[in-house]
Design goal:
Largest sheet: 6 strands, parallel
Helix content: 25-40%
Radius of gyration: 26 Å
Bound molecules: coenzyme A
Strand content: 5-15%
CATH topology of the largest domain: Rossmann fold
Structural class: alpha/beta
Number of strands: 13
CATH architecture of the largest domain: 3-Layer(aba) Sandwich
Number of domains: 2
CATH class of the largest domain: Alpha Beta
Shape: elongated
């Protein structure tokens, strides 16, 4: 083989070649009757792989995510032709790529008819309203599967369709709270012997909507399995219930097993790790951008340091001039103990007091220690590594012009995911979808519009 592995990867995953390659889900059609991030992201992942996804929203205003976040500038990202003074907020950006935008009022009988017509010609739909809302409207799985037995219906809800919690509303943050995630994220109430030296006491939420995007990925994953099963085994569709709360607790790592085996309730351990040591984030006392107007930049820096094997730990402690601690805690069992970790991190932070995160990272790399400075969104957006690979990129968006955003999450040599456009205004494809798939005339479409059905 003439080329190195790096050259081979650079060539087969080259972002410039993505648009000349086939799309694996081309020919499949899904309806996305979704809101916020959980449901939309599931449909978005299918659209990135070439499925035709038709997003159906409330006429004129669209779904709530368009209004939930700020920076909704009407000139840059218009909301809809009916509300020219309103824009779409930046929170809508991550989860609606490559889709067609239809507006339908699900309350109205003509609107429900449109959904049924589309469902008859679709492979599936994704929906994340409250338990039973679509069933009540007569366009849930029970009704749509009568029309199209091959339909794959992915419902992503809060607590599921049955059980005591089923009527409750849910959001990412609620899923994480009930699923137990916040109880193990944040700072411990007490670190005996180190009172006052480390922040204490607060659980911490994730700022990113990690359980929404995670749930969306699970939704898309289930749909792919159902397509295989339908098209190769059974010939029939499937009804999926993904519960956001259940998804959150599914990812509690070892905390459930720990409780089951030892009756122990896992506690928060801040930026350190309850299972591995050293494997945590240390504070570096010098800011990399002392004059910055952004508080996140002006603050001290932070750097992840990972040296949990005995050999790496010994190397780390020698490099920072604390051979005594290498000798004191020679085995992982010694240094992972809750009572021993603080002394190690205290020593590392004392060493990093007069250094920036870049200096700490460079020092660690020179000494063969795994380390990564904690990067902010500007550093991610301008990172040569991410830019070269298309992990962040400019889309030449047909509606909005240049749009900067994250790229798809994985690469593929033959059938890569791609971003053709970020999203469109509410109802932008009404005519296209309703004439192509429902055979409606221009006059009929105008009439439905004047009656607020679409
Ligand atoms: C997000 C959530 C809390 C919103 O709750 P909600 O608005 O009270 O209830 P529903 O989701 O069932 O939505 C019903 C309402 O949507 C509105 N609506 C939205 N799109 C509509 C459309 N195209 N046509 C008609 N009505 C529409 C109506 O006002 C309707 O109210 P109604 O019951 O009076 O008819 C709830 O859907 C939920 O818990 N979803 C599951 C978890 C989830 O996905 N959360 C969001 C991601 S974090």
């Amino acid at each position: 083989m003439a080329t190195s592995f790096e050259e081979y990867c650079r060539d087969v995953f080259d972002p410039k070649k993505v648009f000349s390659k086939p799309e694996p889900l081309k020919g499949y059609r899904f309806l996305s009757m979704t809101q916020y991030i959980l449901g939309p992201s599931a449909a978005n992942y299918l659209a990135e792989l070439g499925a035709e996804v038709i997003k159906i929203e409330l006429p004129r205003r669209g779904e709530p995510m368009r209004h939930t976040t700020p920076f909704n500038e009407p000139l840059l990202y218009p909301l809809s032709k009916w509300l020219p003074d309103k824009g779409t907020g930046l929170g809508f950006f991550g989860a609606n790529h490559n889709e067609y935008f239809l507006s339908v009022d699900f309350h109205k009988p003509e609107g429900q008819e449109i959904v049924k017509m589309l469902a008859a010609k679709s492979d599936g739909c994704v929906e994340n309203y409250r338990a039973g809302t679509f069933d009540r409207w007569g366009i849930g799985y029970r009704q749509l599967s009568q029309i199209n037995p091959r339909i794959i219906y992915q419902w992503l809800g809060g607590f599921g369709g049955w059980g005591p919690g089923r009527k409750r509303a849910s959001y990412d943050i609620l899923g994480q709270a009930q699923g137990g995630c916040f109880s193990v994220t944040g700072w411990p109430v007490k670190i005996p012997g180190y009172e006052g030296k480390f922040p204490i006491g607060l659980p911490s939420k994730h700022t990113i909507w990690i359980m929404d995007y995670w749930g969306g990925m699970m939704g898309a994953f289930q749909i792919l399995a159902a397509l295989y099963w339908r098209d190769n085994v059974s010939g029939v569709g499937d009804f999926f219930e993904y519960s956001q709360v259940q998804g959150a607790q599914r990812h509690l790592s070892d905390a459930i097993a720990l409780y089951g085996r030892h009756g122990l309730v896992q506690q928060r351990w801040g930026n350190w790790d309850a299972l591995l040591s050293v494997h945590g984030i240390i504070k570096c006392g010098k800011s990399s951008y002392p004059g910055s107007q952004f508080p996140a930049e002006a603050e001290e820096g932070f750097c992840l340091v990972s040296a949990h094997t005995d050999a790496d730990y010994a190397k780390l402690m020698k490099a920072v001039g604390r051979d005594d601690l290498a000798k004191k805690y020679p085995t992982h069992d010694d240094r992972v103990k809750a009572e021993n970790q603080p002394a190690i991190y205290e020593a590392l932070e004392a060493w990093a007091k007069d250094k920036t995160k870049e200096q700490v990272e460079e020092f660690m790399h020179k000494n063969g220690i795994n380390a990564q400075r904690v990067m902010n969104s500007k550093e991610v957006s301008t990172s040569e590594h991410f830019l070269q690979r298309g992990n962040v990129h400019w889309i030449d968006d047909p509606t909005f012009g240049d749009v900067f955003s994250q790229g798809p999450v994985f690469m593929a040599s033959e059938t890569p995911p791609r971003h053709k456009w970020a999203f469109k205004p509410v109802g932008a494809d009404n005519e296209y979808v309703l004439s192509k798939l429902c055979g409606l005339s221009k006059a009929k479409i105008k009439e439905l519009e004047s009656q607020d059905v679409i």
